[in-house]
Structures are given as structure tokens and as C-alpha cells.
């Protein structure tokens, strides 16, 4: 799975990370349910489009 969710006790928030082509923080959610829904939407976008919306690996410098 390319998307991971972690609970941050210090801020009492749920963070979503992209572990794929352009790894990094994608989103911060207040509830676990919101984080799960957001992660599912991102996974579906990746599946349908074949890439992550934040993937800039195709850009040439």
C-alpha cells in the first residue's frame, strides 16, 4: 500500500503519508474516520490515474 496513516499523540491528529514516488506528508485529519476516508480516496485516485496527484517525477528540471 502506498498510503499510510499515523496517529500523532502530541497534536491529537491523524496524518496521511505518501510512501510512493514522491514520498511525504499528504494530509492532516482530526479524526481517524476522516483520515481513513481521505486515504481511500487517494488510493482510488492512484488506482484510476496510475499515478499520485502530487507525483512530480515526470517533470524535467
Overall description:
The chain is an alpha+beta fold and 61 residues long. The protein has one domain. The protein contains one helix and three strands; from the N terminus they run βββα. Strands 1-2-3 form a three-stranded antiparallel sheet, covered by helices on one side. Strand 2 (13-18) and strand 3 (24-29) form a beta hairpin.
How is the largest sheet built, in terms of strand order?
A: 1-2-3
How many individual domains?
Answer: 1
Binned, the helix content reads: 25-40%
On the 0 to 100 scale, the average pLDDT is: 83
List the helices and strands and how they pair.
Blueprint: E1 3-8, E2 13-18, E3 24-29, H1 32-49
Antiparallel strand pairs: 1-2, 2-3
Q: Key terms for this structure?
A:
61 residues, alpha+beta, three-stranded antiparallel β-sheet, globular
How would you sum up this structure in a few lines?
This protein is an alpha+beta fold. The protein has one helix and three strands; from the N terminus they run βββα.
